[in-house]
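Try this one yourself first.
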């Protein structure tokens, strides 16, 4: 069969996603922001007024770091800096010049004060308990980031929500034009991939996206369409075998290794690998319950390889995942 939608065409189609850039702010002759450069950001902690273009940004959540990179910015400080580098496949890894600001649940307030940020990007609900402390340090915009406790309302999808958070970051950082360009590029990319899925015969194909990291209680996670990863794959035209009715409002469904064998024999099972937890992934792959499952014996397992695909990622992460999904399906044929 033809493999016209190859690596080169995929990369060319997404070259703009995550590219660096900057929007120049408007200043009066005395150096102060003009009225046009004062923005009100709708946030979980109220309508927050932000002026000028922030230069020293403190970030409290992985997803917000990724959104900053989408609009071409690097934070001055980030919670769990090294962990972000391990879990999120960022175009630019954060080095020592980015100050580690403690954990996401218990930020290091002293480190944030010393950093002297002119903007703090916080997450709701994770930083609810410390939001007043953060607001006392600097202008703080608290955005409702991806969370297993968050459920999109109405017709909003998990991808719509990612774009909403990105737009909040962009408004706070004066990079709205860049964000809208990246969103348009992503939508064009997804449309092209969905068209190709139909051409190669995978439209409607049942699938599961799972995290094979074996938990302490012996379970693995299978993701519903409320999740970013599965919601994005379903947007390509494949059909998630884990339906929302199985776990109303949940972003993932936990099953034991013994239950793996009950999954449909015709599914494609997608997963990625984080080398930091490779031992537990291998424990799953080497178990008899896994190896004896019908979908495994039918060749339905598709590793998307490394680096890890962060399940709460934004447009950069989802572009990377879809690129890998498309390449794997092109190589398999149908």
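Now uncover the answer:
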């Amino acid at each position: 069969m033809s493999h016209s939608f190859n690596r080169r065409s995929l990369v060319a189609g997404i070259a703009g996603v995550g590219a660096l850039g900057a929007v120049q702010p408007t200043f009066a002759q005395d150096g102060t922001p003009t009225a046009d450069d004062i923005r009100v950001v709708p946030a979980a902690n109220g309508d927050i007024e932000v002026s000028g273009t922030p230069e020293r940004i403190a970030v409290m959540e992985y997803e917000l770091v990724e959104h900053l990179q989408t609009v071409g910015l690097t934070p001055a400080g980030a919670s769990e800096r090294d962990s972000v580098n391990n879990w999120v496949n960022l175009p630019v890894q954060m080095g020592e010049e980015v100050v580690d600001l403690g954990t996401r649940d218990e930020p290091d307030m002293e480190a944030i004060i010393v950093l002297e940020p002119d903007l703090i990007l916080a997450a709701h609900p994770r930083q609810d308990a410390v939001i007043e402390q953060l607001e006392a340090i600097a202008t703080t915009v608290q955005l409702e980031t991806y969370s297993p406790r968050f459920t999109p309302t109405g017709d909003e999808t998990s991808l719509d929500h990612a774009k909403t958070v990105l737009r909040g970051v962009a408004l706070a950082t004066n990079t709205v034009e860049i964000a809208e360009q990246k969103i348009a590029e992503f939508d064009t990319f997804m449309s092209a991939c969905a068209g190709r899925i139909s051409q190669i015969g995978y439209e409607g194909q049942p699938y599961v996206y799972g995290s094979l990291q074996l938990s302490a209680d012996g379970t693995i996670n299978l993701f519903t369409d409320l999740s970013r990863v599965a919601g994005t794959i379903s947007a390509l035209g494949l059909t998630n075998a884990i339906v929302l009715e199985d776990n109303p409002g949940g972003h993932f469904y936990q099953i034991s290794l013994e239950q793996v064998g009950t999954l449909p024999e015709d599914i494609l099972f997608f997963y990625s690998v984080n080398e930091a937890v490779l031992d537990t992934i291998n424990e799953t792959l080497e178990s008899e319950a896994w190896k004896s499952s019908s979908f495994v014996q039918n060749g339905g397992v598709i590793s998307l390889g490394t680096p890890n695909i962060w399940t709460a990622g934004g447009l950069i992460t989802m572009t990377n995942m879809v690129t890998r999904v498309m390449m794997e399906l092109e190589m398999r044929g149908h």
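Discussion: Residues 184 and 306 are 27 Å apart (CA to CA). The first strand starts at residue 38 and ends at 43.
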